[in-house]
Amino acid sequence: MSKSLIEKKLSSTAIYEGRIVNLRLDDVKLPDNNEAKREIVEHAGGVSVIPYLTASKEVIMVRQFRNPIDEVLLELPAGLLEMNEDPQNGARRELEEETGYKTGDLKRIGSFYTSPGFCDEEIHLYLAQDLTKHVQKTDGDEFIEIVKMPLSDIKQKLYTPEISDAKTVIGLQYLLKYLEQNNIK
Amino acid sequence: MSKSLIEKKLSSTAIYEGRIVNLRLDDVKLPDNNEAKREIVEHAGGVSVIPYLTASKEVIMVRQFRNPIDEVLLELPAGLLEMNEDPQNGARRELEEETGYKTGDLKRIGSFYTSPGFCDEEIHLYLAQDLTKHVQKTDGDEFIEIVKMPLSDIKQKLYTPEISDAKTVIGLQYLLKYLEQNNIK
């Protein structure tokens, strides 16, 4: 790490400890020795899956009400990691719970932080092919509609408000590039 | 909106009101009439810019310590919107403050939510070309290193831990596609 950029934590105060997030307030020493306060949201991290049906050229997506923005969004299947869960197992579990599909071909794409300026949430992204239909089994407080979206629609809707969830944008951008590079049209 | 997915807010309790985030706890009625609690982080939203130097085929990025994850990340220039600020003006302002560059060609790409399951943060993304160097003027508590990254490096580092900030992944995926489609090699 560049030493000239690093902040040193002086103290930390827990503001809230919840089910999905914790909030803490840190006092830090800046590289110029001044002090500042940092509001930090702690999050367990999650997984997201691009389920691609090769034969029909469709992505299995989920439509879900998102309370913070008061909108129904179209997203890739995703969910929180359980305690000590391996991300690959979490991806298989969430794919099956949310869509009812199991995969025989799961490929890790990469991981990213959703908003590292204030939050430590990291999402691990996977591409799932060789999909077979089983039974959807969402959590009690999850209400989800499954949408099979053709590639042609995805190309049109990317960068429009219809697809506006960050992990979903990243996953679909990746898929389009992947299919092109592998000459899957 | 699909009525069968929508949650109805019953009550809302403010937990914390801060400089960057607020935290509130909502009681909601689910589509099946059961009740649930939702932890919601409120955030003012931000802008991010892909500053592309056409002649040298480089993207101007910033290296910055991110307290929540205790790492120095390589990101696209970005920042919070000021009160009532037009996102396009915010993009120009943040580009100049963080990198010292002004743009004569700013193009809106789209907007996305960083983590809509618990947070309302929305980021507006722009592509900036026709760049001219002026003076960097960061905020007092911002310590930023400017990195000009060649396209060839970006192609290699995308989907590796070196580029792991969501808005940056989205912006660079967009740029590579845009250059390819416009036959800019």
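Chain B has two domains: 3-42, 44-181.
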